[in-house]
Design a protein that fits this description.
Elements lengths: L4 E2 L18 E6 L4 E2 H9 L3 H9 L3 E5 L2 E4 L6 E2 L4 E6 L1 H5 L6 E5 L3 E6 L16 H8 L7 E2 L8 E7 L2 H12 L4 E9 L8 E3 L10 E9 L4 E8 L6 H8 L14 E2 L3 E2 L8 E8 L6 E5 L4
Parallel strand pairs: 1-2, 11-18
Antiparallel strand pairs: 2-7, 3-6, 4-5, 4-7, 8-9, 9-11, 10-11, 12-15, 12-18, 13-14, 14-15, 16-17, 18-19
């Protein structure tokens, strides 16, 4: 992110932000006179102080000094001359409110959650208030920093582990990187999945190795759909959804890789997308013992 406008007389500031407009706006300024971040942004953007403060809390404001760039949440943070502020205003994004995640286990240095569909694993420059990490930071007692070590699709639900120390984050990230974490999912796919033995899907994705093991749990003949269980040892983007779609069993309700109908009659969108991370097993990064978490799936 680079500053595009300055708060000095030249060049002039861009037009004020209309808080009721659905058009996303980027607002970049360089501080000419030391002042609080909230004051600078409110005066420069034309937004109310409460609107700017809310955007800061939701992760839509960034502070930059030379090559250092990070989110800024403190409204009273003193901004010095030459430092830059970046506001990414998207009314629709800032208005989103996902369902709350359910805390499964709190070990202080890590927590395990049941992420609901709609909640993000990772934020963007437009905000992070809909992420599992931000939810953890705001709802845990005592409050603590949260570090993401793996991801789950926005549409998916299920088990996620969050680190709360940099050391445990590094340890868990390495476990995922070395494929030491056991991850199991369950979902519904179109058609009758073969039930005689597990199916191995190992088509590379985005030029990288990808491995999925799929087995049938049950077949719903009236709806011509199968509930399957998937174990993955890699974590490519949309891996399960892409592997199964490419193999001829698209996930029901999948807006990106799913089919348009079931047997040409029932729209897939009549069935909700149901990809659930139902089992997560890894080594406790502090105690060294084996940890396993399982969600019941109907």
């Amino acid at each position: 992110m680079t500053a595009k406008k300055e708060t000095g007389a030249e060049p002039p500031l861009p037009p004020p932000i209309d808080p009721d407009s659905d058009t996303p706006r980027e607002f970049h300024l360089t501080c000419a006179t030391a002042a609080a971040a909230l004051t600078l942004l409110a005066e420069a953007t034309g937004l109310s102080r409460s609107a700017v403060k809310k955007a800061m809390n939701q992760g839509a404001v960034w502070w930059q000094r030379k090559d250092q760039v990070r989110r800024l949440r403190r409204a009273d943070r003193q901004i010095n001359p030459g430092e830059q502020l970046h506001l990414y205003w998207n009314r629709q994004v800032l208005a989103e409110t996902p369902e709350p995640a359910a805390l499964i286990r709190d070990l202080d240095y890590i927590t395990v959650w049941n992420k609901p569909p709609g909640m993000l694993s990772q934020g963007s420059r437009w905000g992070d208030h809909c992420t599992i990490t931000r939810f953890a930071e705001q709802n845990l007692a005592p409050q603590r920093s949260a570090y993401l070590v793996h991801r789950l699709d926005r549409l998916a639900s299920g088990l996620m582990v969050i680190a709360h120390r940099k050391t445990t984050a590094r340890d868990l990230a390495q476990q995922f990187r070395l494929r030491e974490v056991e991850k199991r999912y369950v979902t519904w796919v179109k058609g009758k999945f073969p039930g005689d033995q597990p199916l191995t899907l190992d088509q590379p994705l985005d030029g990288k190795p990808a491995h999925s093991e799929v087995k049938l749990k049950r077949y719903d003949q009236p709806q011509e759909r199968s509930q399957v269980e998937i174990t993955i040892s890699t974590g490519r983007k949309h891996q399960i959804r892409r592997h199964l779609a490419d193999a001829g069993w698209p996930l029901i309700g999948d807006p990106l890789y799913g089919d348009t109908n079931i047997d040409g009659k029932i729209p897939l969108n009549n069935h909700p997308f149901q990809l659930t991370a139902c089992r997560l097993a890894f080594r406790d990064p502090v105690a060294g013992s084996a940890l396993e978490f399982v969600l019941p799936v109907t």
